[in-house]
From TrEMBL:
Pfam families: DEAD (PF00270)
Compositional bias annotation for Polar residues: 8-19
Name of the molecule in the record: RNA helicase
Presence of keyword Nucleotide-binding: yes
Origin species: Penicillium hetheringtonii
Catalysis performed (reactions): ATP + H2O = ADP + phosphate + H(+)
Superkingdom of origin: Eukaryota
Motif Q motif in this chain: 159-187
The EC number(s) this enzyme carries: 3.6.4.13
Taxonomic classification: Eukaryota, Fungi, Dikarya, Ascomycota, Pezizomycotina
Length: 358
């Protein structure tokens, strides 16, 4: 039997890359391709180039440069610099907030972020943009629509978007959304919710019910600031992003289409604010939703099933919830979500709070 495979004038031992070995004279030993480059190495490392370990040659220095600014993804320990979340447990580095254009809560004050023309076009469209619907009906011409408000000492309705009772920053976003006057349901829901009362509202589709609960919730968030997240239990450590979210407002809706619509509205009216809205629903990649809430979640819009999943995973806590909204509550019950809703409201760490049921 031959000692090697030979095809024509080629042999597996014939290689221009192979150094002289211990084989027969004039014939080099075979070296696999992935090892051939090592034959020319003399054991000395090349001079260091730009990188983490060597000088970068620029004014920014390197990771070991004592003159470079300290990098801390969680911000200072006291949470005073940057847009803080949860009382300093989540903060953006360098005072830039949690994203480009986001506002901050600093020293007990709401500081709106800078305007962003691209984001404004995305959220609010351009004048007369048919894709950005404000309300289904021109309610400015329907002041005589009858509204029945029942309850004990019902607050007087509001007839304009003014401060008081609404926050100035919210009013600026309402104007960007081309809302002129409150719809009938908004006239009553704004003062009722802002007075700490429970509310159940019934109105036709396109009547502004979403704004009816978002306006008072966001207005009070801008005035009162974030709630401090509970201290981590002993033995629990967290690096970088905070893995558990502590939203202060929870909005439940039956379908992914509806929660997506509510989320889009929440993005409009939280534009340039410290409030970060998030949305979670079934039938979508849970990994991307987890990464979203890790970046901060102050107002959560969710379907009941997906929220229960995240609660079981320990990624969301309801201990800081101040407002609970059940949008299309009757439909959620018809779809069989009562066990999940009871689990969320009664079986978790949610405090006793005010509820809005549009």
């Amino acid at each position: 039997m031959a000692d090697g495979l030979q095809m024509g004038n080629l042999s597996i031992n014939d290689s221009q890359h192979a150094p002289q070995g211990n084989g027969p004279p004039g014939r080099a030993a075979y070296i696999p391709p992935h090892l051939r480059g090592r034959a020319n190495m003399d054991g000395s490392a090349p001079p260091p180039g730009p990188g983490y370990g060597g000088p970068r040659g620029g004014p920014r220095g390197n990771w070991a440069n004592a003159n470079a600014p300290d990098f801390s993804p969680r911000g200072p320990a006291n949470g005073n610099a940057g847009g803080s979340y949860g009382g300093g447990n989540y903060s953006g580095g360098g005072g830039a907030g949690r994203g480009s254009g986001d506002g901050q809560w600093r020293d007990g004050k709401h500081i709106p972020g800078p305007a962003n023309a691209r984001v404004e076009r995305e959220l609010f469209g351009v004048p007369n943009d048919p894709s950005k619907q404000q309300t289904g009906i021109n309610f400015a011409n329907y002041d005589d629509i009858p509204v029945e408000a029942s309850g004990h000492e019902v607050p007087e309705p509001v007839n304009a978007f003014t401060n008081p009772p609404l926050d100035d920053h919210l009013i600026s976003n309402i104007k960007l959304a081309s809302y002129v006057v409150p719809t009938p349901v908004q006239k009553y829901s704004i003062p009722i919710v802002m007075n700490g009362r429970d509310l159940m509202a019934c109105a036709q589709t396109g009547s502004g019910k979403t704004g009816g609960f978002l306006f008072p919730i966001l207005s009070q968030a801008y005035q009162n600031g974030p709630s401090a997240a509970p201290q981590q239990a002993s033995g629990q450590f967290s690096y970088g992003r905070q893995r558990k979210a502590y939203p202060t407002s929870l909005i439940l809706a039956p379908t992914r289409e509806l929660v997506s619509q509510i989320f889009d509205e929440a993005r409009k009216f939280s534009y340039r604010s410290w409030v970060r809205p998030c949305v979670v629903y079934g039938g979508a990649d849970i990994g991307s939703q987890l990464r979203q809430i890790e970046r901060g979640c102050d107002l959560l819009v969710a379907t009941p099933g997906r929220l229960v999943d995240l609660l079981e995973r320990g990624r969301i806590s309801l201990v800081n919830i101040k407002y609970l909204v059940l949008d299309e509550a009757d439909r959620m019950l018809d779809m069989g979500f009562e066990p999940q809703i009871r689990r969320i409201v009664e079986g978790e760490d949610m405090p006793v709070l005010r509820t809005v049921k549009p």
